[in-house]
Design goal:
Elements lengths: L14 E4 L2 E3 L2 E3 L4 E2 L3 E2 L4 E3 L2 E5 L2 E5 L7 H9 L7 E5 L5 H4 L2 H7 L4 E4 L4 H8 L8 E3 L5 E3 L4 E6 L9 E5 L4 E5 L20 H12 L3 H11 L6 E4 L10 H11 L12 E7 L5 H14 L4 E7 L8 H7 L2 E5 L9 H8 L10 E8 L5 H11 L9 E4 L4 H18 L15
Parallel strand pairs: 8-9, 9-10, 10-11, 15-16, 17-18, 17-19, 19-20, 20-21
Antiparallel strand pairs: 1-2, 2-7, 3-6, 4-5, 7-8, 12-13, 13-14, 14-15
């Protein structure tokens, strides 16, 4: 493949990052969709790194199988396979391990270093050939020596698979971060101070890959913060050599809750979303919100989905403690904006939040139970049977709505026990 313009990437040649450290990866400028869920307007890169030590070489990750020839050519431009002492796999997804089976044939003496959780993945990846594989499990703080340089491992699970880790080259102050601090942005100039503006791609990648694992992001940052950092070398996108610390700080900002500064110390946040065709579900939503707001320590927000797009609500839901959804039943289903909202929540961690459903109906009323099932599928707790009202709610039914909101709020702050809620299929 030929690379045009002012690219520093040349066919069959490694690119030197630092003294004894080389990029031996591959560029994929024509990729337009990654893992189905991400658009890649600028393609991507598969970054692999080679480290030269006085007692041998270490390789950090490989590339996607389709680009193995590029990878091996760049590797061979620096060293021969007999000198490779270690193969470090920070992440075992196929775009990082596609060239691994062939690499192990060419460098059978190399020992593979993986995280604790990567063992079953490695065996599944290599199938029968894994029986005689020499590999070593490493944890945070463990090291390997290449003579005049040392690799230290950091266990950073769920960023974004259970097996992920980072590797730190102490003498060069380089962090090989895996998918953390990466993005799908292909530019042959490689370095963040040389490539085009990739800020959108960086934040877009975080939002779709790392965001569901905020808790693990913050734990990883606690390990990374004390390190001296001259370069951050991720597995996708630009290599961060200009002010790398700002990307660490930006990750902390992205992973931190902004709403926490608005709420009181012991205050909980509840959001009520609804759609209403004739105003009946809207009346229910109002009564539920008032009831929930009557409980001290619970702040309630109410939004009509007919008046806004679902995407901006994702941030609010991520930081809220409870989510209550209201929909009429139309053609035996909840209305589309409710499903649109729920489908957009796959990028956030909802486990443990309180969820509930309500709605008015004319004939069958399936919407409430269907919403409850989806809330459970998203790992929310559904502690109270959903509330359904046929057609126009009367004063007594609105009082039920008020008490429904009050009960959910009381459960949220621990003043009321949760109820056993039947699954939709159990009804």
């Amino acid at each position: 493949m030929q690379y045009k313009g002012n690219s520093i990437v040349k066919e069959g040649k490694a690119v030197q990052l630092d003294d004894g450290v080389y990029w031996v990866g591959a560029l994929d400028p024509d990729l337009r969709s990654f893992d189905i869920i991400l658009n890649t307007a600028n393609g991507t890169s598969y970054n692999s790194y080679l480290i030269e030590g006085s007692e041998g070489y270490a390789l950090i990750d490989t590339v996607k199988a389709e680009f193995a020839d590029d990878f091996f050519a760049r590797l061979e431009s620096v060293t021969d396979y007999s000198k490779i002492k270690a193969i470090v796999l920070n992440h075992l997804e196929p775009d990082h391990t596609g060239a691994l089976p062939e690499l192990l044939k060419r460098a059978p003496q190399a020992r593979v270093y993986i995280s604790q959780r990567a063992q079953s993945m490695l065996k599944a990846l290599l199938k029968d050939s894994s029986e005689n594989l020499e590999f070593q499990v490493v944890n945070t703080g463990e090291q390997i020596s290449l003579g005049d340089c040392t690799l230290t491992f950091l266990s950073t699970p769920f960023l974004h698979w259970p097996d992920t880790q980072c590797t730190y080259l102490e003498e060069r102050e380089i962090l090989f971060s895996g998918d953390v601090f990466g993005c799908h942005f292909c530019d042959g100039r490689l370095f963040n101070d040389k490539v085009g503006d990739f800020r959108f791609s960086f934040d877009y990648y975080y939002a779709h890959i790392m965001r569901p694992f905020k808790k693990w992001v913050l734990e990883a940052l606690d390990l990374i913060d004390p390190l001296d950092l001259r370069i951050i070398a991720p597995t996708h996108g630009p290599i961060l050599r200009d002010r790398p610390r700002r990307y660490v700080n930006h990750y902390r900002e992205l992973a931190s809750n902004s709403l926490s500064g608005e709420l009181g110390t012991n205050e909980k946040s509840m959001i009520v979303f609804y759609m209403s065709s004739y105003g009946n579900t809207a009346r229910m939503a109002e009564a539920i919100s008032v009831g929930a707001g009557s409980i001290s320590g619970v702040r309630v927000s109410m939004f009509d989905l007919q008046g806004g797009e679902t995407e901006p609500f994702v941030d609010l839901i991520e930081e809220a403690d409870a989510l209550i959804l209201g929909s009429p039943t139309i053609n035996g289903d909840a209305v589309k904006p409710i499903w649109d909202l729920l489908s957009s929540l796959i990028v956030v961690d909802l486990k443990g939040k309180v969820g509930a459903a309500f709605g008015s109906f004319g004939w069958s009323g399936e919407a409430v139970r269907m919403i409850e099932d989806r809330l459970r599928g998203l790992k929310l707790r559904v502690p109270q049977q959903g509330l359904r009202v046929k057609l126009i709610p009367n004063d007594e039914e609105l009082e039920d709505c008020y008490n429904f909101g009050k009960d959910i709020a009381s459960i949220l702050i621990g003043k009321k026990k949760e109820c056993k809620v039947l699954e939709f299929g159990e009804l």
